[in-house]
Amino acid sequence: MTNDEILAKVRTLLVDALSVDDDEVTPAARLNADLGAESIDMLDIVFRLEREFRLGKIDRNELFPESIFAGDPEFVEDGVVTPKGLDYLREKLPYADQSKINAFAKNPKLDQIGDLFTVDLIVRFVAKKLAA
Amino acid sequence: MRWIWIDRFTAFEPGKSATAVKNLSHAEDHYAEHFPGFPVMPAALILEGLAQTGGILVGEANQFREKVVLAKIPSAKFHAEAHPGEQLTYTCDLIDLRAEGGVVSGRVTCGDTLICEAEIFFAHLDSNRARQAFGDDNFVFSGELSYLLGQAKLATKQLPPAG
User: Fold this and answer.
1) Domain range for residue A75?
2) DSSP letters of chain B?
3) Of A23-27, A113-117, B111-115, which gets the smallest average pLDDT?
4) Across the A/B interface, how many CB contacts are shorter than 8 Å?
């Protein structure tokens, strides 16, 4: 399956999960800031990815590492993601565009971390899973 | 006030599907206001009945050990109104179940008339929030719902005891 084919399916799935218009679901669209996804939606999205792509059970932390979002003190200090947190993020998201994580690492404010979680990230995640 | 929006289970297949009925009475309070002189069951209450049917289906799949809460209704479509004197049939099929929660596909009919279709997403509370916040007592499947769980048991021969 090509990334364009994956994107088309992901787009349909996000339209259903988030009640957004399909032209809003661009690769660069951020799940939270642009598409209005909340934490329970992330779980819904994981369920739908499993069903749509027959991926088997996905640990949701593979796609949305919760320890960081939840402000685990090991990973987040005073609203800033620690170097250990950044390592964890890189380890959890090996399929992400690393240049985006590097850009985030320059000013790693927790309230900006949602910007990493885009439609493109989901497409990359699915591509990696399908290739496995 | 009682907050039970189904009357009885008529079929229950553990881990697969559940069917319940709800008889609509003009004596129900909501008809007084919704609407004066033209009683129509509020769509949100129709969904509540569907969610109760589906929630018990999801809860039973783990022998009612999980605290099952309605997390999200990704889609709901309403095709017809429901009036006093009618009997609604709620049918839910379990389409996904995992540690964090479950998803049901539901429909509500009155005779041959389709009233509502909805997908409902339930979360297992302890899998999504710290256990200490809610304790070990399963407050979801207790109290008012106990009677319905008994009805669900009657609708199947395979149900283990609730609680």
Assistant:
1) 65-114
2) -------EEEEEETTTEEEEEEE--TTSTHHHHSSTTS----HHHHHHHHHHHHHHHHHHTTTT-S-EEEEEEEEEEE-S---TT-EEEEEEEEEEEETTEEEEEEEEEETTEEEEEEEEEEEEHHHHS-GGGT-SS--TTSTTHHHHHHHHHHT-S-PPPP-
3) A113-117
4) 30
